[in-house]
């Protein structure tokens, strides 16, 4: 979690660093800070709250005569949210910021008397430890190397040491990149942000120690040259356009990014599928792995693979998989799903299965991410950058990727006829236009339904078969952006316990696609209605006759199995968005969350 920026040589150090920190707010936003420095002086400013607070606090401070700056936006892991625990940690000799977690900080704290015993933050302990080493060793490079040998965990550090007027970058596990042009260097934990500044970039590798001194950059961990590569991402995802929130903008972008993703797949990526992927899919089992929304995409993928292929398939939460025994005698392909490609639980699960020589594939929206570097094969989604913390367009692109993969594998393994393959591919091709109309038509309905949810204390989501993960995702979206208590259940499970929750203060959203389980879903709705629970039925069935008290939304477009997740998830995104808007929550940056969860 957290976001890091560093700049050496710029005419507007403070403004640019604060601008970058605002873009990094998606990584956490409970406190922030900057340190300006030059060879004789370090000045640190920190504040609690969002970057706008830091901006106000540093407004009257001039950055003239400073040569560099480091900055940080925090998502608290160790130590409460307060000014002291905000980064950078600094004194007159040293300033540093860190992303990630130092796992052995308590051991270090107990071992060195110079480290105060009452501090709670792993980064503050690291700061005191490095200060101690800088006093002990004449050469700061030695201090840095010893520091790195001692600390354990997943981290990225950016450090300025006054003694030798040098800037150090250290990486193990957490992403950090360095871009440069002539004498100016920019550092950031999100490489895509750097493309607006420089077009040459270096992504640090685990174990890297980079030193910048007197415009000179070198690696201290080995003698290899730093090979800068091109970095030319040319989008501006931070422009909200006519939308009030990034989330709404990103919901509306779905038809376009799904179209782009589908076009790339059929014109490039999956052309000649058999030659490219036969070996990868020569397995008996597929396991789909992710966290949160990406896990829900994986669950949808499980239904796709189950329907279109003859392979054994299951889905797993990354945070659980890594502590399970693997059956590594079975030929298995693990498909990881991650928007950011940096989620620590997913990355660790990927590393875990790799240890047992399992085949791995990553579906991701971030081609420069750690997971891409780890996995055997990458399948990109082309959702472009997602800024809102709640995943919308990245999710539907993940689902599209899994839909395509399952069809391709089914066709290749002959478990799916050419006719059915072509029929489903055609449905996917028509999807963007269908969704564009759906968003337009459903938006006023979503506003109306959102008002109805205001009347209750809890909101449940029910679905069966492929609608079950859609229900889970609908519930996650609602709770994360509105803080409304919410849960998702498989319809068939209601009578085994959850129905006890139903009373007049609850709303249940029944997702009832027009399939062979439609009648059963409707029975669920009736049982809830009979217990005075409020009901919304989402369905494409034009006439819903059963029950009298339900709120029926029966004008969704006609769905097929393969496009059901899209047709039902987007209305749920809209309902959550408009409900949260009424509640007045911070929709793009909900409390306690962060866009990219790089701690375990
Ligand atoms: C919810 C949400 C999260 C992420 C999860 C995994 O809206 O965005 O549940 O899906 O943290 O993130 P990635 O996909 O980056 O691995």
Q: Assess the beta-strand content as a share of residues.
A: 15-25%
In terms of structural class, how would the helical and strand content be classed?
Answer: alpha/beta
Number of strands: 24
State the oligomer.
Answer: single chain
The hetero compounds bound to this protein are:
fructose -6-phosphate
Task: Give the integer mean of the pLDDT values.
Answer: 92
Number of helices: 18
- Strand sequence of the main sheet, in spatial order? 3-2-4-1-10-9-11-14
Cα(first) to Cα(last) distance is: 10 Å
Unreliable runs: none
Outline: globular
Helix content: 25-40%
Largest sheet: 8 strands, antiparallel
What's the alpha carbon Rg, rounded to whole Å? 26 Å
Would you write up a description of this structure?
It is built from 18 helices and 24 strands. It has an eight-stranded antiparallel β-sheet with strand order 3-2-4-1-10-9-11-14. Helix 13 links the parallel strand 18 and strand 19 (377-380). The termini are close together. By secondary structure, the chain is an alpha/beta fold. The protein is 38% helix and 23% strand.
In short:
The protein is an alpha/beta fold and 600 residues long. Strand 7 and strand 8 (166-172) form a beta hairpin. The protein starts with a strand and ends in a 17-residue tail after the last helix.
Task: Give the arrangement of secondary structure elements.
Layout: E1 3-8, H1 13-23, E2 31-38, E3 41-48, H2 51-57, E4 68-74, E5 89-90, E6 94-102, H3 105-111, H4 122-136, H5 140-150, E7 153-161, E8 166-172, E9 177-181, E10 184-188, H6 191-194, E11 200-203, E12 209-213, E13 216-219, E14 229-230, H7 246-252, H8 254-269, H9 273-277, E15 285-290, H10 292-308, E16 312-317, H11 318-321, E17 332-338, H12 344-355, E18 359-364, H13 370-374, E19 377-380, H14 393-412, H15 418-453, E20 458-463, H16 467-482, E21 485-490, E22 506-511, H17 518-529, E23 534-538, E24 551-553, H18 564-583
Parallel strand pairs: 15-16, 15-17, 17-18, 18-19, 20-21, 20-22, 22-23, 23-24
Antiparallel strand pairs: 1-4, 1-10, 2-3, 2-4, 5-6, 6-7, 7-8, 8-12, 9-10, 9-11, 11-14, 12-13
Helix pairs in contact: 3-4, 4-5, 8-14, 8-15, 10-14, 10-16, 14-15, 15-18, 16-18
The structure holds fructose -6-phosphate (F6R).
């Amino acid at each position: 979690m957290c976001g890091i920026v560093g700049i050496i040589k710029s005419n507007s150090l403070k403004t640019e660093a604060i601008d970058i920190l605002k873009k990094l707010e998606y990584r956490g936003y409970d406190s922030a800070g900057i340190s300006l420095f030059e060879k004789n002086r370090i000045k640190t400013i920190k504040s609690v709250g969002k970057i706008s607070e830091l901006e106000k606090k540093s407004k009257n401070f001039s950055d003239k005569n400073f040569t560099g700056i480091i900055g940080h936006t925090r998502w608290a892991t160790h130590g409460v949210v307060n000014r002291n625990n905000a980064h950078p940690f600094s004194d007159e000799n040293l300033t540093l910021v860190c992303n990630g977690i130092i796992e052995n900080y308590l051991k270090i704290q107990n071992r060195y008397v110079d480290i105060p015993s009452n501090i709670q933050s792993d980064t503050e302990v690291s700061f005191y430890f490095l200060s101690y080493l800088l006093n002990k060793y004449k050469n700061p490079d030695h201090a840095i190397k010893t520091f790195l040998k001692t600390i354990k965990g997943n981290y990225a550090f950016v450090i300025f040491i006054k003694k030798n007027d040098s800037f150090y970058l250290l990486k193990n596990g957490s992403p950090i990149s360095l871009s440069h042009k002539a004498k100016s260097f920019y550092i950031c934990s999100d490489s895509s942000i750097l493309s607006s500044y420089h077009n040459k970039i270096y992504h640090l590798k685990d174990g890297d120690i980079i030193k910048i001194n007197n415009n000179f950059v070198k690696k201290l961990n080995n003698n290899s040259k730093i090979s800068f590569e091109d970095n030319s991402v040319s989008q501006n995802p931070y422009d909200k356009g006519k939308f009030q929130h990034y989330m709404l903008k990103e919901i509306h972008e779905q038809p376009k990014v799904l179209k782009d993703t589908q076009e790339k797949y059929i014109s490039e990526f999956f052309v000649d599928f058999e030659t490219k992927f036969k070996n990868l899919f020569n397995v008996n089992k597929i396991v789909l792995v992710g966290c949160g929304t990406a896990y829900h995409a994986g669950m949808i993928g499980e239904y796709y693979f189950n329907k279109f292929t003859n392979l054994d398939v299951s889905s797993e939460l990354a945070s659980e998989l890594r502590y399970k025994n693997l059956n590594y005698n079975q030929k298995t392909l693990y498909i990881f799903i991650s928007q950011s490609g940096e989620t620590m639980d997913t990355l660790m699960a990927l590393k875990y299965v790799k240890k047992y020589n399992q085949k791995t594939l990553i579906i991701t929206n971030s081609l420069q991410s750690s997971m891409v570097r780890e996995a055997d094969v990458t399948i990109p989604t082309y959702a472009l950058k997602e800024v809102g913390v709640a995943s919308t367009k990245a999710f539907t692109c993940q689902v599209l990727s899994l839909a395509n993969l399952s069809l391709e594998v089914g066709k290749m393994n002959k478990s799916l006829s050419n006719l059915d393959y072509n029929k489903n591919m055609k449905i996917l091709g028509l999807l963007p236009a269908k969704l564009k109309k759906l968003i337009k038509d459903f938006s006023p309905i979503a506003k109306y339904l959102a008002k109805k949810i205001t009347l209750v204390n809890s909101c449940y989501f029910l679905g069966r078969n492929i609608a079950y993960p859609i229900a889970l995702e609908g519930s996650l979206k609602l709770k994360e952006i509105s803080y409304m208590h919410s849960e998702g259940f498989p319809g068939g499970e209601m009578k085994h316990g959850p129905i006890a929750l139903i009373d007049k203060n609850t709303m249940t959203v029944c997702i009832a696609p027009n399939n062979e389980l439609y009648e059963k879903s409707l029975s669920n709705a009736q049982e809830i209605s009979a217990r005075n629970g409020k009901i919304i039925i989402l369905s494409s069935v034009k006439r819903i006759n059963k029950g009298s008290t339900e709120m029926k939304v029966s004008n969704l477009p006609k769905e097929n199995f393969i496009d059901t997740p899209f047709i039902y998830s987007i209305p749920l995104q809209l309902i959550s968005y408009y409900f949260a808007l009424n509640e007045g929550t911070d929709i793009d940056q909900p409390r306690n969350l962060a866009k990219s969860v790089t701690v375990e």
